[in-house]
Amino acid sequence: MKINKIWVIVSLGLWICSCVEPFEITFQHGQKILTVDATITDTEEEQVFSITESESRNSVVYSFNVTGAKVEVLVDRVETVSLTEKSPGVYALPASFRVKKGSVYKLFFEKADGTKYESAEEVMTSVPEIKKVYDEFRMEGIKTGAGYDPASFVFIDADDPADEKNNYVWSWRLWEKQIICKSCSNGRYFVSPPPDGQCVYEEKYKEVPFFDYACDGNCWDIFYNTSLNVFSDVFSNGKSIVGRVVAKIPYYSEKGALIEIKQQSVTPAAYRYLKLLTDQGQNTGSLVDTPPAAIVGNITNMTTPDEPIAGFFMVSGVRTVRYWLSRENALNSGAIPTGILGHKLNYEPNSVFPDPPRPPLAPCKPSRFRANVEPEGWVN
What InterPro entries does the entry give (predicted)? Predict the structure, then answer.
């Protein structure tokens, strides 16, 4: 019997501080895929896991939060730490929880229907500091369908310890100043209903692609890396890491931007998993190419071991540094900024009658991709 296959997006890469694009895999029609995003780091940030389940129905993929699960982490094979469900499908470790170098960790969880899962053991490994960050502007920076867009290449230097094997992962997030907080197609923006207002279609503006509305205060858009960046020192143990490209930032604006770079250490098993994702997802042409082999994580159904489970339980050391990307090295290049909206600004014309004075300002609504509070390290 012919098997119908569909594409389903599962969040295999979200463990890297939620900075990695979802990776696409295939599965049979009607089959359910459990996805586990579970990473412990040595940062002061809240440690949360997420468990979701995706299912295909009539060529449509539905994703559901796995609620009511009992989730635990076993430390050094003796201490059990329970997580609490802070929102549907999201489970948090106690605020007092801290990881220790050399300690062994293992994930256990049981769904509401009694199905039990466990991970392989993961060990906390150390990670060196980032010694230096610097950037270089390149006219032919990022390849696009039409050629190349200018971009800033960001590099780091670090000392790789000679007395231990290390596996690295680099990720980043970027803050860019935003002046437009709402764009409305074929209509205008109205501040009612509060708090966010709405775009309202209007026949007289049906030929207008969009109107842009300025922010009612300071606002920053936040961008994240969209590919995995992994490295093993197996052939260079103890040698300095020099000039490692960790980010390629589009030339959005002539003004500066703030980038936060995270350098993480992972176990050999986690590295092999991430390298497989890199090779299959980034080196086969594009993320929509069919992976040449199945992607296997370290989480297993204790009753039905052959159940396909997406995700990997990881324990990672993290070192973070923020760097001001001034873009001064691009000023005399002749490069034209691409902008962060993807289109040329088009403000709604000012008017008084018959409406109230327009156009209104739009709120800067905080989210994972937007902030209304100045980030630490921002340079005005």
Answer: DUF4249
